UniProtKB/TrEMBL annotation:
Origin superkingdom: Bacteria
Record-linked Gene3D superfamilies: Winged helix-like DNA-binding domain superfamily/Winged helix DNA-binding domain
Protein name from the UniProt record: Helix-turn-helix domain-containing protein
N-terminal signal peptide: none
Keyword Transcription regulation carried by entry: yes
InterPro entries: HTH_HxlR, WH-like_DNA-bd_sf, WH_DNA-bd_sf
Keywords recorded for this protein, A-Z: DNA-binding, Transcription, Transcription regulation
Lineage of the species this protein comes from: Bacteria, Bacillati, Actinomycetota, Actinomycetes, Pseudonocardiales
């Protein structure tokens, strides 16, 4: 029996948030949107998510005001984070760092985020998505993401979809991927 999406008997902000972002695939869709993935076909290829599931997750995020649809060509739309969606960055970052520490294994994850627009010279983000150099919580658009050495784990397969290939190079968050 499928689980419902709501927590009617919970008077709790976390429960209300989970009604929107708590389903499987949703946080990965949001991660890719922060990385600059905007088009349905690119999201689907990078996430390996069934078409119907992705359609449902995108519709939920649009209905909740987290993403908006924008035309980019006649009859074609892309998905862009709204201000409400951008506010999810610290939570997404913190959850990702938790995964690095507790679920990835020795050495943690391979992706880092640097405050590229830092007035103090910038540094990789610390806990809570804070820049340790200037002490601020930088906006996602002022962050650059990069992979650590790709050669450090020759047994780890590299994906070859267009999004994965583009994200092997340093990339500013929210900047559309080619």
């Amino acid at each position: 029996m499928p689980l419902g999406r709501d927590y009617d008997r919970q008077d709790c902000a976390l429960a209300r948030a989970l009604e929107v972002v708590g389903e499987r695939w949703t946080m990965l869709v949001l991660r890719d949107c922060f990385f600059g993935v905007r088009r349905f076909a690119d999201l689907r290829a990078h996430l390996d998510v069934p078409r119907a599931v992705l359609s449902d997750r995108l519709a939920t995020l649009v209905d909740a005001g987290i993403l908006e649809r924008r035309p980019y060509a006649p009859g074609r739309e892309e998905y862009v984070l709204t201000g409400t969606g951008l506010d999810l960055w610290p939570a997404l970052y913190s959850l990702s760092r938790w995964g690095d520490r507790h679920r990835v294994g020795p050495g943690g994850g391979r992706r880092r985020f640097r405050h590229a627009d830092c007035p103090a010279g910038g540094a990789d983000l610390a806990a809570g998505a804070v820049c340790p150099a200037c002490g601020t919580l930088p906006a996602p658009a002022s962050l650059e993401t990069r992979l650590l050495d790709l050669d450090d784990d020759p047994d780890r397969p590299l994906r070859d979809d267009a999004v994965s290939v583009a994200l092997r190079r340093p990339h500013r968050l929210l900047t559309p991927l080619p």
